């Protein structure tokens, strides 16, 4: 959607350039996942560094000399820190932001320390892997994923990251929740694409939506009696045409799935009433395609 919108705004036909941008933005989505995962490792490392510094004080207190190490000995955090495969991929992709921008690590670490969840966790006499994992899931969900400073950092650092953040947070939380003590090293390194068809879908959707723009516009014309075509918000028109593209060009995608996905996109990116407007247009388009026997779906089809 963003790539098509960018093409419309630039008034150019540089489809190849937008294809590269699209693939690069998808790749950067994976970098964001690795960046947030590495943040957990760096927070733990900062905690350990603080303990070492406290123990070196000339007038260290008893508590500083014999600190509670439960947080830095957290089994899930230690597993992430010791994951060589993860470290290699992060090095390959040059994911080293927190070494340069460590103030964000400090900010989040301090917020964790101030939380009631941290105090409760540190007061436990003993913990097992499940307890350690549940604590990390909690602080990620309640402190890291909602952190305003982190949000501002991501916004400044990469154009597409804010749009990717909800999906990445959902994936990362899912991986954390299902992590096990005996899990393989590669568990935290999911594939960027499910398969080659998955990658190809993104490019084909962009190409077919752009190259068939005028054809898809014809399906919209006449279905907005109270609106001239020129008065439809540009973003709404793009969303409608992308949905029509999936109706006609992607036989394996059920109609209901397409409609639901694009209505969610409209709710996120367009005007408050856009989803109702778009739903009405798409409903009319589907009925027309069905009447003309133009809706060729395989598998579950319309289910």
Automatic annotation (TrEMBL):
Which Gene Ontology molecular function entries are recorded, alphabetically? RNA binding
Organism, per UniProt? Imtechella halotolerans K1
Q: Which GO terms describe its biological process?
A: DNA-templated transcription termination; transcription antitermination
Q: Which residues form the NusB/RsmB/TIM44 domain?
A: 194-287
RNA-binding as UniProt keyword: yes
Keyword list (alphabetical) reads: RNA-binding, Transcription, Transcription antitermination, Transcription regulation
Instruction: From the Swiss-Prot or TrEMBL record, give the protein name.
Output: Antitermination protein NusB
The text of the family note is: Belongs to the NusB family.
Q: Which GO terms describe its cellular component?
A: cytosol
Iron-sulfur as a keyword of this entry, yes or no, is: no
Taxonomic placement: Bacteria, Pseudomonadati, Bacteroidota, Flavobacteriia, Flavobacteriales
